[in-house]
Amino acid sequence: MTRIYISAGEPSADAHAAAVTVALRRRLPGVEFEALGGPLLERAGARVLDRMEAFSVVGFVEALAKIPAHYRLLGRVRTAFRAGRYDLAILLDYPGYHLRAAAAAAEAGVPVLYYIAPQMWAWGAGRVRKLKSVERLAVILPFEETFFRERGVAATFVGHPLKDRPPAAPRSEARRMLGLDPARPALGLFPGSRAQEVARHWKIFRAAADRVAAARPEVQLVVAGAPGAHYPDPGPIRIHTGDPLPVFAAADAGICKSGTTTLEAAMADVPMVITYRVHPVSSFIAFRLLRVPWVGLVNLVAGYEVAPELLQRRATPEALAESVLPLLDANHPATRRQREGLALVRERLGPPGAAERVAEIAAGLLG
Fold this sequence. Notes:
Layout: E1 3-8, H1 11-27, E2 32-37, H2 39-43, E3 47-51, H3 60-63, H4 67-82, E4 88-92, H5 95-107, E5 112-115, H6 120-123, E6 136-139, H7 144-149, E7 155-157, H8 171-177, E8 186-190, H9 195-215, E9 220-225, E10 238-241, H10 245-250, E11 253-257, H11 260-267, E12 272-276, H12 280-289, H13 297-302, E13 309-311, H14 317-324, H15 333-348, H16 354-366
Parallel strand pairs: 1-2, 1-4, 2-3, 4-5, 5-6, 6-7, 8-9, 8-11, 9-10, 11-12, 12-13
Helix pairs in contact: 1-16, 4-5, 9-14
């Protein structure tokens, strides 16, 4: 019996891992999956041994409290690798833990496919040596294949999984789905997919939205809500919990936390302001390690600043509102310029079919 260990430590990776699991089950109907993951991996047919919700955090300081739990998990997984339980390990993103898990798998003779590369291009090329345990690296950003190949890692650009999302509903229809007036403009708020992110961002997002509403009373406000997160005193802001796609589809512009959210906005052609806040100590460390000029993925993929970035102390309600207000006007020069950049980003993210290409690589490693 072929058995694969697939590991996803946070919600977006859970979705991507589920897609790969489904694609591999089509290719190899008898294969069994065991996992670190969440509800989507479970729904795809994997036996989830450890729930990702117990491990997922953001930031250097915030991660300290989770170190003991990660080491206990690593001990269990290393034991299973050494016992020969798995024929292949597929690890997604989450490098703090997965680079150690990759080393444990390689030590036990289990081939490793790493999908969604650690962002070593951001933190320093010297860390690439930590990928020596990985047999194949499947990358989702167009510039990553060259970066890793030049440093001796067998990397393949498989395209971005966001290209496989179903097309968004028309804006007026999406607004109706959310209980909004289809004829009035809407501002989308995207403070994060984790309760920890929302807790850090919500007060600023809400205050920025209040300023937008004061300047443009006709603008409707809607937040892409994360399950388990809290949104105190939302006032007129409509909270949509679940799939954020309708919020992207409904929005004329967005305030987006950095990360994959910015690419989701690009896919929906939503002009945006990018922001992020972490613990001040985490920020102090991060800005001394960063080796790239931007943190927003849309800017990194485009190669120039498509969307403005307001990070840490610059992420004030006043600055966010001032930056996003022009983007609510489709004819404003800032909106037109940004939409040109977003079209370039969509083109560079490659064709649909990322999960199928990852499954093809995985099948090849199984022999």
